[in-house]
Amino acid sequence: MTVAPSGGPGGRLGRRSVLFALGGSTFSGLGLGSPTPAPRGLVVPRQPPPDWLLTDHRGRRARLTTRLQGQVTAVQLMFTGCSSTCPVQGAVFADVAGRIRAKDIRLLSLSVDPLGDDPKALDAWLDRFGRPQCWSAAAPGLDDVEPLASFLRGQARPNSSHSTQVFLFDRQARLAFRTVDLPSAEHVADLLAQLARA
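RE: above sequence
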């Protein structure tokens, strides 16, 4: 089961996240089947994201498309309070950062817990992994978490807002590729290099 962030006792995000996280096992237990797996591979046609407003680790606010435009970007979903898969995801991005050669390749960690992940928490997340220059972190508004996860994962209603896939965007800020869960750093770096050469 995927660990989900909490929006505080009885909080809207907490209730929603717990329901999503329990969704797979609950549906299976009722004989209703598992949630549909998230799509992987090339995104055809490439898809521009809705223009969500993000607040980054320095407290600056900018639209997602503004952050993505003009560079090849790998995006991951995470939250700083996660103690299971998120540290692994962070280590993968730190490894990817060490493999990047092109100057227009970027990494972006997007939090699915905007209530818990203020700029200070996001800044500490980057510090934890050596703060490579190509890597930034940001959080959407609370109401945008589910739509953002749905867009990235290619599902109308994902079983969790948290995902261990990596999402690759081209220089035109279009979603171009969805990886498998917990991809290797080598795989992500290779995909970024291919997009950068295109």
